[in-house]
Amino acid sequence: MTFAPMTDAEREAMLAAIGVKSVDELFADIPAAIRLERPLDLPPAMAEAEVRRHLSQLAGRNADADRYACFLGAGAYDHLIPAAVGQLVSRSEFYTSYTPYQPEITQGVLQATYEYQTMIATLTGMDLANASVYDGATALAEGALLACAHTGRDRVVIPTAVHPEYRHVTQTYLRHQGLETVEVPYRDGVTPLDEIAARVDARTAAVVVQQPNFFGSIEDVAAIAGIAREAGALLIVAIADPLTLGVLKPPGAAGAQIAVGDGQALGNNLSFGGPYLGFLAVRQELVRRTPGRIVGATVDRDGNRGFVLTLQTREQHIRREKATSNICTNQALNALTAAVYLSLLGKQGVREVAGQCVQKAHYLQRAMTALPGFAPAFEAPFFHEFVVRTTADPEELTQRLLDHQIIGGLPLGRFYPELSDCMLWCVTESRTREEMDRLVAVLEGLT
Questions:
Q1: Of 113, 125, 190, 217, which one's alpha carbon is 20 to 30 angstroms from that of 328?
Q2: What is the number of domains present in the chain?
Q3: How many Å apart are CA 79 and CA 344, to the nearest integer?
């Protein structure tokens, strides 16, 4: 079946029905400088079967992690996902569920969210977690706003070793509310304690640290917590890959009051960048300033266990001036996926995944930096991401690796001009020794 294009008469009838004289009038509010002043570059109309074949051919050109060996991380991670995850979260009672406004008939969805919150709180070592926000970047921004509201202060100290996108989103959120961010430079891949101390003062609401940081390096979170505590500020720990907590000390045990991050690594596919889910966990004293919603366990009048939306500080539920955030979704399906994934792995499974990531990353780093033209950029300890300096052009090298069905590391010059000769590489438990050895052999042949 082929669909015929709209006739002039049909177009005029539609315009008349909505009360405008022309298509251009519909877009009058869009500045002329950014309008496309030519027809769309589209092929002629095709039959449904032809469209399906065409889209399949386009999809086949994608360098996805199912067919390519992926060594790219930087906030999105190619972890192994048990087949049971997809089967469970695809059940219609979960897949089609929406906001549980009526708890008496949405007990399953509420319990799933409650279990998710409990797992995130346990993983981060915090007292409680909310139902998820959009992604790791917005979770950090919300955590920073929470800290400013709680302390009554107007500055947040953020190291440049925090994920650039997390920093940029947080700066945007704060700037438009009259709040300030203060950046701290890195040194040898980590944030120097003296540089943090020099920037923390009586106006500091919170100090942020990413663990591991954007370069994959391990930060001294406990020492940074001490600096923040001495100044009366909160500590926010951002975590791009929560599976690292299978080995690393959780934020709560290191002195943090707020833990934020992205739950993509918890059973959610890369999906070409989204949708993902942000998580936000806090100490008990911050619960009433926590954005989003919190599901709690209770009992009904007959003593049966049940679940309710305990706190709903969203502007959809309370007066706007009383709302802590304008978050309007909780990424429920992604959060359910995270809960199912963590349930399947259990504590031992999370430790095993984290351990394999560390071991494999160090294996690849040693093999790669043994090649001529490659050297470690930093001496700081790292987890499953690391920075390598190369005499080759990182952007060109990335493109050439695609010819060998390898998704290479991130050229850091895109975010850090001073690291234009460096690449950020990532290794998860998904990578095999054969894939890592093949990468090293290809690099040796290309440089």
A1: 125
A2: 3
A3: 14
